[in-house]
Amino acid sequence: MSDSFDQLFLVPGDGVAEQPSDSVPGLRYIPDWLAPPACESLLLIIDATSWSTHLRRRVQHYGHHYDYVRRGMARNSASATAPALPSWAGELAARLVREGIMDQEADQVIVNDYQPGQGISPHVDCVPCFGPVVAAVSLGSPCLMDFTHSAEKKKVSVGLAPGSLCVMTGPARYAWRHSIAARKSDPGPTGRVARGRRVSVTFRTVISPPI
Q1: What is the pTM of this model?
Q2: Which residues fall within 8 angstroms of residue 26, CB to CB, at 6 or more apart?
């Protein structure tokens, strides 16, 4: 990438400051972590790369391949090997460290493509596989992400705007499950809000090597 293009990923947008969450301990929501031009450019780069279609939604894996059937890191074989992190992912991983969001650069990135009506079931990112911080950038359409705590019988819905960064640490990472309902619209302050295409880019560190 050119120097001017790199700057798109290094300069935050002009949105409001970080919003800590009292309802979900350990959850941090940073609006406009990526400015709109960076979101648009990043989507173009992502769409220029081939997608895996073995799930109902399209995905791209970088650094390490996650096996959804085994719910762990993929076996170390030629078919399971993921491409190295591309330059754009490396730039964002370095920025996450510079800003103190992660204490080491992510070495595993998953890009998920959600079409209207698609979602993801409640889950906690693999505990023995990944480190204590999970950070995800949203691109495209906004949506609601639900955080649920079964023991405390709590549910908190968090709106994810394009360009925002959602960071899960502590209880938000380990005790709360997160999900996106499979629907074509979300409730809003004045009625239902139609979803468009949303792409998420999730940064994680691997602590369990492939077997």
Answers
A1: 0.88
A2: 168, 169, 170, 171, 172, 173, 176
